[in-house]
Amino acid sequence: MQRTTIAFLLFAAMLCLAVSACNDSSSDSTDGDIDVPETEILPDGDTGEDGDIPSDGDEAVCGVGDFEKNAAALKVYHGTEFPALFGMTPGQQLAMGALVQDYGGFYANFCTGTVIASRLVLTAAHCLADVYNPADIKFVLGPDASSPLAVLTVADLDIHPQYEPYSGNPAAHDLGVLVLSESAYDLAPGLEAVPVNTSPLTDAIIGKQVQNGGYGTTHDNEYNSRRFWIAERLDSYYDGEFTVNGQGQGGVCFGDSGGPSFYDFGQGLRVIGTVSWGDESCTGIDHFADVTYGSSWLEPYMAESGNCGSVDEKGACSGDTARYCQNDRLVEENCRMAGNICGEDESGDFRCVPDPCDGVTFQGVCESGIAYWCQDRRIRFKRCIPCDQECGWTGAALGYYCTDDPQTEPDGDGELPVDGDTDSAGSCGSIGWLGCCDGTTARWCDPNTETPRRENCRAFGQECGWTEDYGYYCGGSGEDPSGTVPMNCP
Questions:
Q1: How many other CB atoms are there within 10 angstroms of residue 89's CB atom?
Q2: Do residues 250 and 230 lie in contact, with contact meaning Cβ atoms separated by under 8 Å?
Q3: Which residues in the chain land under pLDDT 50?
Q4: CA nearest 336: which of 365, 374, 308, 368?
Q5: Nearest alpha carbon to residue 250 among 217, 282, 276, 224
Q6: Secondary structure of 231-270 in the HEC alphabet?
Q7: 3-state DSSP: the chain helix, strand, coil percent, rounded to 5?
Q8: d(Cα 248, Cα 356) in Å, to the nearest integer?
Q9: What is the pTM of this model?
């Protein structure tokens, strides 16, 4: 964990990276009045018989009749077991798997990949550069590569012909493919292949959060085999690559090489890049190959899987996107753009249908001290006041919820807040680089920009305290041993 960006490694130290990820749920959310469709309010265990959403006048005991949001367990350089962004379905999550190799009698994961068509896996070229026989590796699916849900054999493999590992830009064209012997849909029921992005990146994506993932090294396990996720900010794109910034908190790491970066431009989830190399701290700047630079190379492989892949006329839901086959053409409709969700229509086909939560998302809203959110297509609620808490923004994992220490809310543009975002620009006042603790929130002054910055340590299950390297920060304990820097913020 760190607060300054570590200098990039020389190319000779180019990494085979692995993941550490972020949180749970996806949609934008703002405070305000909510209109809840009464027929959908079915709070199991509500002490009232009518099942109505509670009001301020209700007598309540902390936790009685209320619901609990399920927080993802934090792990891996502040990564999580479930993705935070874009409402990824279990089938889409299953599309990310691990490349495993025989190491003297046992298989172990060494890279990450993504199913992008029924028999096609996208990974990094450098993962395959020294693999001469496809039979030497396998592709496995599931939350743990050491105990996979499905094991897929590899019939063929290839790397992008323009990949240049010893060039000044090794991330460009760092793309490879595995051609599977069998359809991933047949061996992993419910899997949803995630197509690659074919539209060039634009400045509009700068500063946005992208969802990354992989099976690589964690903060406490160099030989990790489990799947983890992290949301990171996309900082730049150029000449066949883009960079993401873990901001000293988390990121891809050794073994996540070839792992995907996901983004939804409004037409459904896409793979926009593969992990190439980056900061050895696993919390700084990482470089991804931009898949649009390899889209024409991928076309012949994609054609072999058919235009619709496993999607039929009945279709399926990928988060808020309805995907179905029409006239041998894959149709993808973003239901949220029309204020709907994806679900079964009257004919039993998966299409865009009215939203039963009427716009309330898992991120939720606060209303009169009560947190409301949508889960399992129902409005859920938790009364905060009886638990001596406030309703407020708790971070990307839970959105608006009951908390002892509410964070600054997301920006009005609906994007998730970036951990470590600057407060309003201006002088840091009496707060210096070594910082201070404001409850469980660490505050400090960025010496480069002279702007105040903050981090809610509770989002990581930590306290604010003194650290030897960074002053007051998350994970520390106690006060400055010299006694010269006050612990509590003025």
A1: 20
A2: yes
A3: 1-51, 56-57, 71-78, 411-426
A4: 374
A5: 282
A6: EEEEEEEECCEEEEECCCCCCCCCECCCCEEEEECCCCEE
A7: 10, 35, 55
A8: 39
A9: 0.54
